[in-house]
Amino acid sequence: MFLLFLIFTQCIASIEMVETFCLFPHSPKQLRVALRGQNGVTVSWRTSGSFGSNDTPQPQVEFGTDSSLSVKADSPIGTTTNYNKRSFFHNVALLNLSSSTTYYYRIKSASCVRESGIHSFKTPPAPGNQSSTSISIVGDLGNNNLINLGAPSRTIKALQAAASTTDFFIHSGDIAYADDYNLGLPLEFYEQAWNKFQNNVESITANNFYMVAPGNHEVTCFQLGDVFCLSNAYRNFSAYANRFRMPGDESGGYKNLWYSFDYGLAHVVVINTETDFPDAPAGPGTTLNGGNFVGVQGQLDWLHADLQAAVANRAQVPWIIVTGHRPFFGSLPKLPALPGNCDSCRLAFQPIFLQYNVDFYFAGHVHWYERLYSITSTDGTFTQDYSDPNGVIHITNGAGGGPEGAAKLKTGIDSSAKIVSGYGYTKLDLQDASKAKITFVNSKSLQEDDSIVVVRQH
């Protein structure tokens, strides 16, 4: 027995020595780029650390406009966050970039971490540029399991195919479904589920701006409540907060929970439908017990100010698009154990949308695609006209492939124009200052299962 123990301890010592002297360095993973205010981009990645210590004390990126990086610039040293000593998340800001320019970048090696391959992104057009803007929007995606039968993989492949014609991506919450671990996939746990998802989408996120919104499955480590989380490291949006760096600071919002940015013809606002407004469904004291981060009114005050500024700038950026996770209106009401409409969200946000003439609200949460007519009030009155409609067009887009399966319903409500009970993503093409096309793309057939043109004289 003693001999076996001695051999075991020597093996552990040998492994530690290998790690210490970097005989087997590892590569940065989960590369992703996101918009960071005017003329700024954040490059982010994950490393696994070295026995609980940060393996990249000075995260840095080299970049330039040449694909060989023969003429390159070193970025300032970035920042690192972690929440469990097993994942370290590095963020480097590339600032003062030129508009409409392709930049190439490479993550520099550090400690036991190799340098990355060379990736690229194209910066947004200059403010006031009226060229078309194309956005691909997905919600409720996650990983494959025994219920969704490969739907997430098909949707990811469909998004990959759309990358060349997409200016940026939006994921409207319920990203990795890490809190649904073991749902049809035994022995897949919280961290593994997060890492698996972000590894799966790296081919998209390393070269395309991938902007995210928080959903109910991002709040805590287990969908039945944070009481089941053994560590605070997994409560209150901790994983989401560390894994995605969004332009909250640059837009006056709050980290990656609510923020805004401009891209071409679009002013995009991301809201948090989970916490930080009256009677929020995942707020303090609820099962998920998240927020309030800046008080119950802070997000709404920010939204008023942001949309007021956007309206004043509409001559340059005509379309105002809001995305959040939960729908306010739709054909699937809130039922026990089923996702549905969020009444407290509707009462908090819809009056603000109407006040500032928001064009579109994209939600997820319900696992189908539903296009509504233009909603003209807080109580759900609507107009069927898509030519200069007097209201907000609501789209529910939770059809990415969530592990709980697809939603189905035979009859929609009166304000419902189209329901597709399949998997896919939505494409929003802002063709010019007054014309937009909404398309739902089936991720299996890559065919358009719905399409409508909206005309609005801003």
Secondary structure elements and pairings:
Layout (H helix, E strand, L loop, with lengths): L1 H19 L8 E7 L5 E7 L13 E4 L8 E2 L4 E4 L5 E7 L7 E6 L11 E4 L10 E6 L12 H12 L5 E4 L18 H11 L1 H4 L3 E4 L25 H6 L4 H4 L7 E5 L2 E5 L27 H15 L6 E5 L19 H13 L4 E4 L5 E7 L6 E2 L8 E6 L18 E5 L3 E7 L4 E8 L5 E8 L3
Parallel strand pairs: 9-10, 10-11, 13-14, 14-15, 15-18
Antiparallel strand pairs: 1-2, 2-6, 3-4, 3-7, 5-6, 7-8, 9-20, 12-13, 16-17, 16-18, 16-19, 20-21, 21-22
Helix pairs in contact: 7-8
Would you give an account of this structure?
The structure is a single chain. The protein is an alpha+beta fold and 458 residues long. Helices cover 18% and strands 26% of the residues. The protein has 8 helices and 22 strands. It has helices spanning 2-20, 151-162, 190-200, 202-205, 238-243, 248-251, 298-312, 343-355; strands at residues 29-35, 41-47, 61-64, 73-74, 79-82, 88-94, 102-107, 119-122, 133-138, 168-171, 209-212, 259-263, 266-270, 319-323, 360-363, 369-375, 382-383, 392-397, 416-420, 424-430, 435-442, 448-455. The strands form 4 sheets. Strands 12, 13, 14, 15, 16, 17, 18 and 19 form an 8-stranded mixed sheet that branches. A 6-stranded mixed sheet has the order 11-10-9-20-21-22, covered by helices on one side. A 4-stranded antiparallel sheet has the order 1-2-6-5. The longest helix has 19 residues, at 2-20. The protein is globular and about 65 Å long. The model is unreliable at 1-21 (pLDDT under 50).
